[in-house]
Design brief:
Blueprint lengths: L2 H55 L5 H23 L7
């Protein structure tokens, strides 16, 4: 094995190590992005749910506001249940 072959093998090993490192970093970034998205969506959903429940239970809320809060809460619950049970998916 001459010097050029050794150099080529070292370069290939370095390239493979760099690819593994990049793959690991991309996986970390993908996981972090999914975790942040999940947190933001869950937090937003909880905030809207609590707000709707507050409006529904608050004494003296306008009927229009209670209707809006009730329909929003119902839509959220329906969407979540449909997602969990798979009833909203279209399987051909």
């Amino acid at each position: 094995m001459d010097g050029a072959d050794k150099l080529r093998l070292r370069q290939e090993a370095a390239d493979a190590q760099l690819r593994r490192w990049k793959d690991k970093e991309e996986t970390k970034l993908r996981l972090l992005t999914k975790a942040i998205l999940f947190g933001v969506l869950t937090g937003g959903g909880l905030f809207i749910s609590v707000l709707c429940i507050y409006v529904i239970l608050k004494e003296g809320s306008a009927p229009n506001t209670v209707n809006w809060a009730t329909s929003t809460l119902t839509s959220m619950a329906t969407g979540i249940m449909g997602y969990l049970t798979g009833k909203n998916s279209n399987h051909d």
